[in-house]
C-alpha cells in the first residue's frame, strides 16, 4: 500500500463540479493498493498517517502529529501511485490492485481512522475527481508499506 501525505491548510474534492468533501487544517492523503497488500499493510499506513510528526511545535520544529493537532483527514483513492514509467512514456499500472480489492482496503482504512476518533472525509472511489489543496510548508511525505522508501 502506498500513500502520499500532504500537510494542508485546507483541501477539497469535487466530482462533476459538485463539492463532495472538504477539510480545514490537517492531512490530504492519496492512497493506492497493490495485489500483495494484506491487513498488515493497512495497519502500517494507518499508523503512519496518525502518528507522522509533520506539524510544528512551539519551537517551530516538526514534532507534532495530526492526532496531536486535532487535524482533519481527507483520504483520496489514487491507483496511479503504482504507475511505473521506467519504460517508455506511457505508465503501466499492472502493480495496482483490482478495483474490488482497492475499494475494500480504501474503505477499511477510512473506517479504521474514523474508529480511532479522527474526522475523516473522502473522495469518491473510481471517479474522476478534482482535488484542490493549499499545501502547508509545503510538506509532502511518501509512504510505502513495503518500506521501499
From TrEMBL:
Catalytic activity entry: a D-aminoacyl-tRNA + H2O = a tRNA + a D-alpha-amino acid + H(+); glycyl-tRNA(Ala) + H2O = tRNA(Ala) + glycine + H(+)
Subunit structure: Homodimer.
Entry's EC annotation: 3.1.1.96, 3.1.1.-
Pfam families, A to Z: Tyr_Deacylase
Motif (Gly-cisPro motif, important for rejection of L-amino acids): 137-138
InterPro entries (UniProt xref): Daa-tRNA_deacyls_DTD (IPR003732), DTD-like_sf (IPR023509)
UniProt superkingdom: Bacteria
Example GO molecular function: D-tyrosyl-tRNA(Tyr) deacylase activity
Keyword field: Cytoplasm, Hydrolase, RNA-binding, tRNA-binding
Family annotation (HAMAP family): Deacylase_Dtd (MF_00518)
Domain notes for this protein: A Gly-cisPro motif from one monomer fits into the active site of the other monomer to allow specific chiral rejection of L-amino acids.
Organism expressing this protein natively: Anaerococcus vaginalis ATCC 51170
GO biological process: D-amino acid catabolic process
Family membership noted in the UniProt record: Belongs to the DTD family.
Name used for this protein in its record: D-aminoacyl-tRNA deacylase
Predominant cellular place of this UniProt entry's protein: cytoplasm
Amino acid at each position: 500500500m502506498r500513500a502520499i501525505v500532504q500537510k494542508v491548510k485546507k483541501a477539497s474534492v469535487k466530482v462533476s463540479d459538485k463539492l463532495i468533501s472538504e477539510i480545514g487544517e490537517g492531512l490530504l492523503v492519496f492512497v493506492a493498493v497493490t495485489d500483495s497488500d494484506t491487513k498488515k499493510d493497512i495497519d502500517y499506513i494507518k499508523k503512519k498517517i496518525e502518528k507522522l510528526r509533520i506539524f510544528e511545535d512551539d519551537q517551530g520544529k516538526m514534532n507534532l502529529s495530526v492526532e496531536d493537532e486535532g487535524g482533519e483527514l481527507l483520504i483520496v483513492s489514487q491507483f496511479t501511485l503504482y504507475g511505473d514509467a521506467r519504460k517508455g512514456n506511457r505508465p503501466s499500472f499492472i502493480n495496482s490492485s483490482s478495483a474490488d480489492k482497492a475499494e475494500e482496503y480504501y474503505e477499511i482504512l477510512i473506517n479504521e481512522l474514523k474508529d480511532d476518533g479522527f474526522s475523516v472525509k473522502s473522495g469518491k472511489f473510481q471517479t474522476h475527481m478534482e482535488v484542490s489543496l493549499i499545501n502547508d510548508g509545503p510538506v509532502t511525505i511518501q509512504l510505502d508499506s513495503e518500506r521501499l522508501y
